[in-house]
Design goal:
Strand order of the largest sheet: 6-7-8-3-9-10
Helix content: 25-40%
Order of helices and strands: EEEHEEHEHHHEHEHEEHHH
Structural class: alpha/beta
Low-confidence stretches: none
Shape: globular
Strand content: 25-35%
Number of strands: 10
Mean pLDDT: 93
Length: 243
């Protein structure tokens, strides 16, 4: 089943075309990577898919329904949640309260939202920090908190914007393990990621964009050897290191 269909998506900022005629799809139970150099338009794509920016041209369908013109909370309620490249917890409230914000989308009572928030924190390994102020967490734990807030909305599709960015190798490995568990629970994932080791371990397909245009698409092992991708993004050093 095709969950997410993007057809000839375009986004302009004045005279700048940030995304140009971009088409791809995400199937049920799939992990799809979206990669490209800095400034390629990846986060702009996420903003368009989740209602944070209006779509100028093209069409986006989620579960067969157009989401063009819908607000972020409406899209999230349909079952598509996201994280942000720059993590955005409510710094001066507790870890638990941060996750309850996401849980309230699905639960009608505070008690039920609190239970969902606790179970989500336990799943991501933050239950022991539930009463800590979110602003006191180091980056690796803030990334998990951001993930927990999105998971508490009970998404069918999860859009992750550089969830491994800035993490050390041990934390990257732990995030890969956690994302595999999320995927095994039936959540489809669209993943923007510069940490290629993590992306290669997770993605079943990869879409590569540069200057807002798709330059390659396919299975990871083939895409990373595409001459256009090597030149625009990865560099010859990556291929040499990968063998």
């Amino acid at each position: 089943m095709m969950l997410l269909q993007v057809e000839k998506l375009e986004k302009h900022f004045g005279g700048l075309c940030a995304v140009a005629e971009l088409s791809f799809f995400l199937e049920e139970a799939q992990i799809l990577g979206l990669i490209g150099p800095n400034g390629a338009g990846k986060t702009t794509v996420f903003h368009c898919l989740t209602g944070f920016l209006p779509i100028d041209k093209g069409e986006v369908k989620f579960k067969g329904r157009s989401i063009k013109g819908l607000r972020p909370h409406q899209i999230c309620r349909m079952g598509m949640a996201r994280t942000f490249q720059i993590v955005r917890p409510f710094l001066n409230v507790s870890v638990l309260d941060n996750v309850m914000v996401g849980a309230m989308l699905r639960e009608k009572s505070l008690a039920a939202a609190r239970r969902l928030a606790h179970s989500t924190l336990e799943f991501v390994g933050l239950e022991g920090l539930s009463q800590e102020r979110a602003g006191s967490l180091p980056l690796a734990l803030r990334k998990r908190l951001e993930l927990a807030r999105a998971l508490a909305t009970r998404p069918e599709v999860l859009l992750l914007d550089e969830v491994m960015g800035g993490l050390n190798p041990t934390d990257v490995d732990e995030m890969v393990r956690l994302l595999r568990e999320i995927h095994q629970k039936g959540v489809s994932i669209l993943l923007i990621e510069h940490v290629m080791r993590g992306l290669m371990a997770l993605a079943q397909r990869v879409v590569v964009i540069n200057y807002g245009r798709k330059i390659a698409e396919g299975v990871p092992g083939e895409v990373v050897r595409d001459p256009q991708v090597v030149e625009a993004y990865l560099g010859r050093e990556f291929l040499d290191a990968a063998g």
